Amino acid sequence: MASTTTVCVIIAAKNAERTIGRAIASALRETAVSEVVVVDDGSDDSTPQASIEADDASGRLQILKLDRNHGPAFARNRAIAQSSAPLIAILDADDFFLPGRFDSLLAGADDWDFIADNIVFIDSRNVPGTAPQVPHFEPAPRFLNIKGFIDGNISRRGASRGEIGFLKPVMRRAFLDAHGLRYDEKLRLGEDYELYARALLKGARYKVVHGCGYGAVVRPDSLSGKHRTEDLKRLYEADRAMLSGALLQDTRTALQNHERHIRARYELRHFLDIKAARGLAAAGAHALGHPGALPAIVRGVLGDKLEAFGARGKAAGNEPAAPRYLLPARADVQR
Fold first, then answer.
1. Closest CA to 219 of 54, 92, 49, 72
2. E strands within 101-144?
3. Using alpha carbons only, what angle is made at residue 113 by residues 81 and 325, rounded to the nearest 5 degrees?
4. CA triplet 64, 69, 74: central angle to 5 degrees?
5. What are residue 219's phi and psi, to 5 degrees?
6. What's the mean pLDDT in 92-116?
7. What SS3 state is found at 265?
8. What DSSP element (H or E) covers 24?
9. Whole-angstrom distance between the N-terminal and C-terminal Cα of the chain?
10. 101, 229, 255, 304: which has the highest count of C-beta atoms within 10 A?
11. Burial (CB count within 10 angstroms: exposed 0-12, middle 13-18, buried 19+), residue 117
12. d(C-alpha 184, C-alpha 29), whole Å
């Protein structure tokens, strides 16, 4: 399928001058890619110039520049509007595709609306000049349903980040257009989760294979780790918007659990904001005045303290983390 299919790769970039060249090069290397659309989302560094320097002169690269920062959802929607390839793939500006990603990912049955492969998380201190050596995993294709997807997006305190929403599926433009689906531009956190959840509610066939084709670079100053309190509020409000529709009971229960999870994170962050701005007494008064939020605040404060204590015990080594994979997978012994 990859030899006859065209893919548009969309890269929303904000102050990514150090990494954008690697991301673009990894996309242009793929023979199935007909368009690479970089949206410079209000950068104040050399991201546009670094993007131009990564061009391979094949005519496939397009660079759009926004006058101010709008967030990844807006930037991606702009890129979708400016492109025409039948398949759409998202690539974060920090990340890169492993060689042959689309040849492998698109080689199977044409029975999906969204298709995603495994992700290898790489400590930024370990990122080599060339793509890492990743084992060949058994594809083990399966389909995600809405309940499994939502359940897989509830993070566990103390565990490495591994929500299914991190997957970067290839999406059929025809399915998005048929159902009027685009990123919710109010969201600056969880915009991928929210789009995929709405697609699944519309009946999307979301296929997952366990072979690995996406490299995600983990660094402490990542923009995705700097979300605002308001971002959490908008994300649980997005869950509530989905809950307002007609849903099967197991789907409704899963969405309610996710909404409570995100709202608890919001309540803790809101409490800490008040404490930082007005002091502990004001924060305590706020908590007591909102008894429904009190359990989330207490659990969150205790959890943060325990996590900080554990982190102090590990700080001495400060060694780069070993690569890890989002999805459990077995090596393909037949290769």
1. 92
2. 114-123, 142-144
3. 100
4. 65
5. -140, 150
6. 95
7. helix
8. helix 20-28
9. 21
10. 101
11. buried
12. 30
What pLDDT is attached to residue 79?
98
CA distance 101 to 40: 24
Instruction: Report d(CA 265, CA 232) in Å as an integer.
Output: 7
Count of residues making up the chain: 335
Sign, CA torsion 140/146/148/153: positive
pTM for the model stands at 0.90
Torsion 273-218-66-72 (CA) sign: negative
Instruction: Taking residues 110-127, report their average pLDDT.
Output: 90
114 neighbors 204 (Cβ within 8 angstroms): yes
CB 212 within 8 A of CB 120: yes
User: CA 146 to CA 206: how far, in whole Å?
Assistant: 9
Task: For 7-221, give the CATH class.
Answer: alpha beta
Phi, psi of 40 (to 5 degrees): -75, 110
What stretch of H or E contains 51?
helix 47-53
CA 230 – CA 201 distance, rounded (Å):
25
Q: What is the pLDDT of residue 106?
A: 93
What distance in Å separates the CA atoms of residue 232 and residue 255, rounded to the nearest whole number? Answer: 15
DSSP single-letter state for residue 72 = H
Name the residue type at position 4.
T
State the Cα–Cα distance between residues 322 and 309, nearest whole angstrom.
22
Tokens of 173: 């433009």
- Are 101 and 183 a contacting pair, CB within 8 Å? no
User: What was the pLDDT predicted at 223?
Assistant: 46
Beta strand extents in the chain (DSSP E only): 7-13, 33-41, 61-66, 87-90, 96-97, 114-123, 142-144, 170-172, 206-218, 324-325
Rounded CA gap, 285 and 289, in Å? Answer: 6
Q: Exposed/middle/buried for 322, CB within 10 Å: 0-12, 13-18, 19+?
A: exposed
- Residue 73 · residue 187 · CB < 8 Å: yes
User: Positive or negative, the Cα torsion across 26, 27, 33, 34?
Assistant: negative
User: Range(s) for CATH 3.90.550.10 in the chain?
Assistant: 7-221
